[in-house]
Amino acid sequence: MLSQVTLILLVCCLSTSTIPITIYKNAQFVPTNTNLKLADQFSINSLNECACQCLNNSQCLTATYIGINKSCSMFSAQVKRSWLQIQTTIMDASVLTFSNESLPVCSTYNFQQPPQLYTTGALPAVMISADLNKDGHVDLAIGNYNGNSISILLGIGNGSFQLPAISFPSNGSNPYWFVAHDFNNDGNIDLAICNEGSNTISILLGLGNGSFQLSVITFNSGGSAPSSIIVVDVNNDYKADLVVTNTGSYTITIFLGFNNGTFQVPGTSYAAGSSPSSITSGDFNSDGNIDLAVVSRNSNQLLIFRGVGNGTFQTNVTSYTTGSVPYLVRTADFNGDSKLDLLVANSYSNTISIFTGTGVGTFVTSASATYTTGIANTFDIAIQDLNGDLIMDLAVSNQYGNISVYFGYQNGTFGGIKSYSSAGQLSKGITITDFNEDGRPDLAIANGNSNTVAIILALCT
């Protein structure tokens, strides 16, 4: 859950200034225009020190402070609702801006119907949104499972995209999941793809213009049938690492990054129940190290791996019972207690379960924290504040093309469910981003049966 605090007293060195500062806790500032970022500074010991650094930069209007790595990222832009991204990995991230202007809250909230459709490759399964060509507009990268390719839709900034989509080979068969990050530290967005059919990980290095290098880095996933992948720093060296679930070999594999686009191979693998299908990360026990949460769909388990901080994990894994065939796990603070919770989507029992975090590495669940989806095979869930009340909401995709929006409440529960059509079926990957730059988060959903992506714009009054 996001929380907003307005301060007026700022102490910089030995001087004291009275300046309006609005702080959004448990969030990061992620503008779609990458040119708005001024600098990253490290060894910043407090939020106050980050504010002073921003104040001393005449161009800085907003900054993100992350305590776990003592970093201060500064931007030359004011806060927009759609650029406030909920922090779901660590709980000590805050956005500060030199303004006491409140962001608008929607009195009524809906999504535009019917959606606008764009053609992709064969069986689009998952996608990410990012500014791939550095023009200040959000683009989409879509993984086509049967097409063995990645489709790029370049955003125009008004909710529409350039046609036709640009296609790049995934350099492996059946790309199932991928993540976006600057892996070689050149300022361009790269992709890391897990190819389920060829048991490989492909690294596509971005050129910063919406395209990727022809030479692709590929290595073994550490097992068989890799099905999900996350990017996170597991050894506290400020470099991006990868963690992969290998569903066919019942393992997760850690690949330490070198910050030049390559990774330590072979990776380190850990047993992860029966058919691990999804993974997320966070500091669940508040020790400053990244932990992992994995769902194993054949054993109906949620597994917690506690990180040591050097890239390894404790062998005493904690297990929790889920619903039938857990397919997906996500993390966020749903009840506003500054402790990470977990969300699990159970495909065969048609439910979503919330596991409430205690902050010491354990989780609590109850029947009241389980919600019926009504339709089988939930594929993806996106988490974001959709209606501007600073409380996280859920957007859920399923195989029948129904997108269900669950609105969050202050106590961590959900209700006010609304359903929308994606104008397709086998709806898989879903992402929440402001595509038309009106400050309101919109939806994009991959329709596997029709080889399309549906863009559903928000209507907020």
CATH first level of the largest domain:
Mainly Beta
**CATH topology tier name of the largest domain:** Methylamine Dehydrogenase, Chain H
Instruction: Write down the overall geometry.
Output: globular
How many beta-strand runs?
Answer: 39
- Name of the CATH homologous superfamily of the largest domain: Integrin alpha, N-terminal
Largest sheet entry: 6 strands, antiparallel
The CATH architecture term of the largest domain is 7 Propeller
User: Which spans of ≥5 residues are poorly predicted at pLDDT below 50?
Assistant: none
Provide the domain count. 2
Distance between the termini: 22 Å
Keywords: Signal
Signal peptide: 1-18
Organism: Adineta steineri
Domain Apple: 13-102
What topology emerges from the helices and strands here?
Layout: E1 3-12, E2 15-25, E3 27-29, E4 37-41, H1 47-55, E5 62-66, E6 71-75, E7 84-86, E8 93-97, E9 109-111, E10 116-119, E11 124-130, E12 139-144, E13 149-153, E14 166-169, E15 175-181, E16 190-195, E17 200-204, E18 217-220, E19 226-232, E20 241-246, E21 251-255, E22 268-271, E23 276-282, E24 291-296, E25 301-305, E26 318-321, E27 326-332, E28 341-346, E29 351-357, E30 363-364, E31 370-372, E32 378-384, E33 393-398, E34 402-408, E35 414-421, E36 427-433, E37 442-447, E38 452-456, E39 458-460
Antiparallel strand pairs: 1-2, 2-8, 3-7, 4-6, 5-6, 5-8, 9-39, 10-38, 11-12, 12-13, 13-14, 15-16, 16-17, 17-18, 19-20, 20-21, 21-22, 23-24, 24-25, 25-26, 27-28, 28-29, 29-30, 29-31, 32-33, 33-34, 34-35, 36-37, 37-38
InterPro entries: FG-GAP, Integrin_alpha_N, Pan_app
Protein name: Apple domain-containing protein
Domain Apple: 13-102
